[in-house]
Design a protein that fits this description.
four-stranded mixed beta sheet; globular; UDP-N-acetylmuramoyl-L-alanine:D-glutamate ligase; single chain; 9 helices; 23% strand; alpha/beta; 311 residues
Length: 311
């Protein structure tokens, strides 16, 4: 069967309600008057990865469980508007949703509706096997119940990546993903010793490449046993929201990997894509395009930091 999908994104579809708050943590008060207001839009981790990959001209397909509800309609419309093929499997508990509190500096705090993670413990295997067989690579979100897809993806012979997000290095929920993937992304936010954690992932699992992102402090990359510190990239505009920056990093990194670039170059692409994401308001969805990404990478200095091209 021809592998005419570059990246199959599994899971992570949902809807966020964006609430701008005067500061984080939000001080206790009976009420707060907030601007620019409250916005509900489609876009969670898997959606953002799929958007980022599509903007970089990779043939992308997204599959997840969606409810027959308003939130599901928003997710379906997002994919339709951006030309991203979507396989929506029925979910009786409804489409995943969250509330994101966004501070003036772009930091955010997410509140996930755990009731939307209830439902079937198993996935219908037939569509997953069919899509996996047609894919060069699969990126698996850690949302329920996609852990059960990991053996199916392995059987199909596709390479795997996952994003553990703010894993603390100990929660057993994340371990099956961490140990099954060939490429692992995670945030360093909850790690006391990021180097120890990423080396442990590589030692116990399949991954030869592990990346711990740290926002403005760059990232720590472990590639074939070599530890590499990746500097941050200066955003091309004001930082207005950090939501989706890690997903954009993953999309940029995967773009480089699927085009045969070495790990350092992949990480540079990821850093550029992540920095771009920080300039996109939380009420919108947008990703860096292929031409823009390559131009910014070409303009990167020796240390890997973006420098605007001379006019």
């Amino acid at each position: 069967m021809p592998r005419d999908i570059d990246v199959l994104v599994l899971g992570g579809a949902g809807v966020d309600t964006i609430v701008h708050v005067p500061q984080l943590p939000l001080p206790f008060a009976d009420s707060h008057m907030i601007r620019p207001g409250i916005t509900t839009r489609a876009g969670q981790s898997g959606d953002f990865v799929a958007l980022g990959l599509t903007a970089l001209d990779l043939r992308t397909h997204h599959v997840d469980l969606l409810g027959d509800d308003h939130e599901g309609d928003l997710v379906r419309a997002l994919h339709r508007d951006h030309g991203i093929p979507l396989t929506a499997l029925p979910h009786p508990a409804g489409t995943k949703r969250a509330v994101n509190l966004v501070g003036p500096d772009g930091r955010r705090q997410s509140l996930y509706d755990a009731t939307r993670t209830d439902g079937p413990d198993r996935l219908p295997e037939s569509p997953v096997r069919r899509l996996a067989a047609a894919s060069r690579h699969a990126h698996v979100a850690i949302t329920h119940p996609w852990v059960h897809a990991l053996p199916l993806l392995r059987e199909a012979g596709t390479t795997l990546s996952t994003d553990l997000h703010d894993w603390d290095g100990a929660d057993p929920y994340h371990e099956p993903y961490a140990l099954a993937a060939d490429l692992v992304f995670l945030s360093a936010a909850a790690l006391t010793d990021p180097e120890r954690t990423i080396r442990d992932i590589a030692a116990r699992g399949r991954a030869r490449t592990v990346v711990a992102t740290a926002g403005a402090d760059g990232a720590l990359l472990l590639a074939d046993g070599e530890l590499i510190r990746i500097p941050a990239v200066r955003p091309p505009g004001p930082v207005v929201d950090t939501n989706g920056a890690g997903d954009a990093f993953a999309a940029g990194f995967l773009f480089g990997r699927l085009n045969g670039e070495d790990a350092r170059r992949c990480a540079l692409y990821g850093a550029i894509a992540g920095a771009h994401a920080c300039t996109v308001p939380s009420t919108r969805t947008g990703a860096v395009g292929r031409g823009d990404l390559l131009a910014r990478a070409a303009a990167a200095g020796p240390a890997g930091r973006f420098r605007p091209p001379a006019e």
